[in-house]
Amino acid sequence: MTMIALTREITQEKRFLLAFLVSVALHGLLFGGSYLLSRTGILQQTAEEIYSMSDVVEDLVPAEPLQPAPAGRNATRRIAANVSFLLISPAEAKELSGNTQRISRAIRDEKLKQQRKAIPVVKNPAVKPKLTQYSPVPYPAAAGGTSGTVTVCILVGYDGRPEYASIAGSSGNRFLDAAAVEHCITWRFTPARDGKGRFVRCLVYIPVNVKQ
């Protein structure tokens, strides 16, 4: 009887020990699985953050490499200034600017230039040009309140547009003269005609009163 009781007691201890070991193993597996899942989430989140940052960095990278700005004296371009033009009065500068614009406008269309040369300039056309579009000459501030009459010579083209204007009679004030010549080039005329009804070019002389 004693041996049987001892055997039963040993068997129960083994069962208890086995159950304890199984319980420890299960807890270990559960803990290990939770830890691995949490680490996987952290790694995935970190990977997503790195991917997002890489997109931002890619957007900041320029399409072409930036060229360094030139430094030192070599970066300064030297341009020779027209000293004679810079030293003249404002009214003279305005007059030169107006003359330059007229020259460039004449050279811009070579075909029209050749057509104008082919049409003769008639002194006494059968039908004289008439002034159709005009406006008063803007008074130049540099004239200082002086008024005067400028006789302007205008070459009227076959289309009624002035080809050039010049001073035929001065007012005695160069600022008034320059203002009259520059403004009269914008006027418009009816074309002149010869005895056969053909359009011709002709010179007209117009007294222009310039006043405040």
Explain the overall architecture:
The chain is built from 5 helices and 7 strands; from the N terminus they run H-H-H-H-E-E-E-H-E-E-E-E. By secondary structure, it is α+β, with helices and mostly antiparallel strands. The strands form 3 sheets. The chain has a 3-stranded antiparallel β-sheet with strand order 3-2-7, covered by helices on one side. A two-stranded antiparallel sheet has the order 1-4. A two-stranded antiparallel sheet has the order 5-6. 14% of the residues are buried. The termini are far apart. Strand 5 (192-193) and strand 6 form a beta hairpin. 48% of the residues lie in helices and 17% in strands. Helix 3 (90-108) runs parallel beside helix 5 (174-184). The protein folds into 2 domains: 1-60; 90-210, Fusion Protein Consisting Of Minor Coat Protein, Glycine Rich Linker, Tola, And A His Tag, Chain: A, Domain 2 (2-Layer Sandwich), CATH 3.30.1150. It is rod-shaped. Residues 46-67, 72-90 and 99-107 have low confidence and may be disordered.
